[in-house]
Amino acid sequence: MTSSHQRPQHHRSVVSYVQRGERMTVGQQRAWDRHWERLGQEVKALPAGPVRFDEWFGREAPVVLEIGSGMGETTAQLVAAAPDVNYVAVEVYKPGLAQLLLRAEALGVTNLRVLRGDAVDLLTDHIPPGTLSGVRIYFPDPWPKKKHHKRRLVQPEFVHLLATRLRPGGTLHLATDWEQYADQMLAVCSAEPLLRNQHDGWAPRPEWRPVTKFEQRAVEEDRISHDLMFERNELT
């Protein structure tokens, strides 16, 4: 039987992100030139099979994957606050990853690695089942128009894929400030048999999660942010 990380590459007709420009500031370019070769990899350029995180980080430690790190303003703080974790950020936007590397450098963190590309390809082809201690998706594009809802990242097939990659007891932490998307996230995750809600509905906002610029904007626009914390159960 073929293992999940040996599946052939697949191509989705609908993706959850928009291709953006790649022009970088001088500081971002310098950070990229200094750190990318050692700390970054392109998902499309990864060799077949699983990423050997223990070799890449030079140590064995729990692996946390953040999907969509944006410009890295909160990601860098989360990495710095968890030196005992091997923190991996996957993002399609090159200047965002460069900015994250710049912020990480300023904080002196050593436990960050970054991947540029599609998280679905990464999870499907390069992360074996039961590998991750945590997955974090904070304020993904809400695609608010109904005709665009199919482009939302949090869909049943994707959540099932995430659940299979979590180790038993591993956590999936989602946050959004769009109420309808929050309801969709709750419904989709609650329907996944591999996951168990750690709370009765919404999770209390964890104090350790920094306020993102999107969350601050939501406060200013009177939108309420919702956190969800699900745990991989023992079912196979």
Rg, alpha carbons = 17 Å
CATH class: Alpha Beta
User: What class would the helix/strand composition place it in?
Assistant: alpha/beta
CATH topology tier name: Rossmann fold
Order of helices and strands: HEHEHEHEHEHEHEHE
Largest sheet: 8 strands, mixed
Number of helices: 8
Please provide the count of β strands. Answer: 8
Question: Can you tell me the CATH architecture?
Answer: 3-Layer(aba) Sandwich
Helix content: 25-40%
Can you tell me the overall shape? globular
Strand adjacency order, main sheet:
1-4-3-2-5-6-8-7
Keywords: Methyltransferase, S-adenosyl-L-methionine, Transferase, tRNA processing
GO molecular function: tRNA (guanine(46)-N7)-methyltransferase activity
Pathway: tRNA modification; N(7)-methylguanine-tRNA biosynthesis
Function: Catalyzes the formation of N(7)-methylguanine at position 46 (m7G46) in tRNA.
